Amino acid sequence: MIQNFSNIIAEQRKLDNEIMNKFEKNYEITFKERKLALLVELSELANEIRSFKYWSVKPRGSDERILDEYADGLHFISGFAIQYSFNGIFQIKNKIPQTVNNSFLTKKMLKLFKLSSKINSKKHVIKFFKKYLEFGYFLGYSEKQIKDAYENKHEVNIQRQNTNY
Predict the structure, then answer these.
(1) pLDDT of 44-90, one tens digit each?
(2) pTM attached to this predicted model
(3) How far is CA 52 from CA 63, 107, 146, in A?
(4) pLDDT tens column, 99-121
(5) Is 70 exposed, middle or buried (0-12, 13-18, 19+ CB in 10 A)?
(6) What residues form DSSP beta bridges with 89?
(7) DSSP notation for 83-123
(8) Is 72 within 8 Å of 146 (Cβ atoms)?
């Protein structure tokens, strides 16, 4: 299945350019900070999903909250896509396994953490982007829900920049 996230990449480029200009930074200078930010966002997503919390009976966060955290990660991976000249068009297997349980989600989340540590080239960005999108599908979200969540969070991020967040 062909995925086209080029509009998201274009929107992220505009916001990133504004932020980089405002703070006199660039992708190379901010690489480590953005990589850490991606890890933080992955952690916040994991905390909302709660698949690893075998000791708790509290249910996972609301779809709104999970999609909000997921969108945060999408913002940062889009920045890496821009840095490594990836246009956001790729093919993935859109096959959801029959059993998507907490153990499965924890395993996939750990894979995302591992892949995030390897982001240093276009090849690694594409691989992470694919796995991140697949993870969104494993959580039960459609491409439209994912893109809408990005757009909603993008508007929040623009407002934050306009109000010196």
Answers:
(1) 999 999 999 999 999 999 999 999 999 999 999 999 999 999 999 98
(2) 0.93
(3) 18, 9, 23
(4) 899 999 999 999 999 999 999 99
(5) buried
(6) 4
(7) HTT--SEEE------S---HHHHHHHHHHHHHHHTT-SSHH
(8) no
